[in-house]
Amino acid sequence: MAWVFALLLLFAPSVSAEHAAPRLMSDSPEYCAELLGRFAALGPQVSSQSRALAEEGRKLCLEGQSRSGIAKLRRALKEAQREE
Amino acid sequence: MTAPAEENGGWRDLGAYLKSAGFRFATLFAVLFLAAMVGFAFMLWWGTAGTLSRQIDDAIRADALGLQEAWRSGGTAAVVDAIGERLAVDIDDHAIYLLADSAGLRIGGNLDRWPAVAQASWSWSADTVRRDGVAVPARMHHVPLGQGHRLLVGRDATDREKLRTLLSEALLWSFAVAVAFAIAGAAALRRALGERLRAASMTAGAIAAGDLTRRVPLSAQRDEFDQLGASMNAMLDRIDQLMVGIKGVSDSIAHDLRTPIARARMRLENALMSAPDEETLRAAMETTVADLDGISRVFQALLRIAEAEAGARRAAFAPFDLAQVLADAAEVYGALAEERGQHLQTSWPDKLEMVGDRDMVLQAIANLLDNAVKFTPQGGTIRLNASAPARDRREISVCDEGPGLAPEDRARAGERFFRADPSRALPGSGLGLSLVKAVAALHGGGLRLGDAQAGAERTGLEARLILSSRA
Prior knowledge:
The complex is a heterodimer.
Chain A lengths: L1 H19 L8 H13 L6 H15 L3 H18 L1
Chain B lengths: L2 H17 L1 H27 L1 H40 L6 E6 L5 E4 L13 E9 L2 E13 L2 E8 L1 H51 L15 H51 L3 H33 L7 E4 H18 L3 E5 L5 E4 L1 H18 L5 E10 L2 E7 L7 H6 L19 H11 L3 E5 L11 E7 L3
């Protein structure tokens, strides 16, 4: 029986490591909110194109599609950054 | 009962097959083909997946250096701001950052906690992170910042892993196809080699069985096998020629020496039976001894010709001055010509260096001069000339004022025991020019016979001995 426990112990770390892998937080609704805050902080001088992208991102985040919403918001921020 | 014998035969056949040149060439081909394939795969991997990995590492390294700079200039807050800005414009969503304090607690970045594998300071690691609950591969670099703070910079390596998987599959299939091609190519190569060598092998077998007329068939490709076949055919022609020569010599010896031996025997028998006194008997015996000496000289000449033709004396080749050899011959035959009321004219450069068998060359020149003295009438002139028309060529010419040789006799003049009609009345064995011809061949040259004075009543004979001056 001892070898069965040894085998279990051998496999145990890999199984637990799978569950213990760190999680990426940049696809969460909270991160949506953070990006919206960053965009708002840019002020009114941003272009309408950036604004439209940010609006699309906001809607997607509200619909629960955080990753798509975050992608749009990032493109809006990138566009605004380029305009500066 | 025959099973073990058959088994042994099978192993022997397999052993012979593995030792065969065809198998070895085929194996070499297969190994080279597969080595080329491995080299190609390595270059492909290094140029695609390798390049992508290096690009990822370079981007991570540059990113980490930028954040270290931010730490030095503004501390924790500056690093958190910089990470936030970089994540905000990370459209590809590949960037991974984590700033942790001395207790390992998260201060900034998009990773919820420090990975277990990234504990060592200032090192690289490959691990997985969870994105939407799914584990994805990541390449990470962790850097200590000071005051126990640690920074982790990484990239999502999903694309790189996909490319690696695709490449691995493609290369695996390619390798399988390459192995199949290598085996098929090796088999075809072995078969082609066997086919090309079969003709030569069959010819050699037929000759070994006694059929000397067989020759290796040559193809129109004129490749290395045809060259080998041509060499074999040339060798067989030469052997054939030598066999005919040996047969001719045997016939000639039987024909030409039978008469003098029979004559000597008859003379001795007559003397024994009917000599009136001891003096007559003694005279008959002396004549017989002289006849036997002549026979002995013929055998000696035959041996020298055989020696020259076999090339056995080539090992004794050494550098010598041909001018000196000509001077020696001219001294002996000049005196002989003078005794007979003839005049010997000579002309050659001061030095005529060459490599060869000095004694054989001297013998050949002596034979030519001997013939010239024999056939030139009293008061006539014999000319002995030598020159170096090319760097590696020496020519010796002996011209007499004798009756010359008919064109049909010139072609046969080098044959053993051949004597043209005008010379039959003169002493000689018919071996002189045979030896000259053999010596010329031994020295990579030849013997040319022509008229000394074309159009004259007595054309005379010009014997031109051509020698190569290099061994």
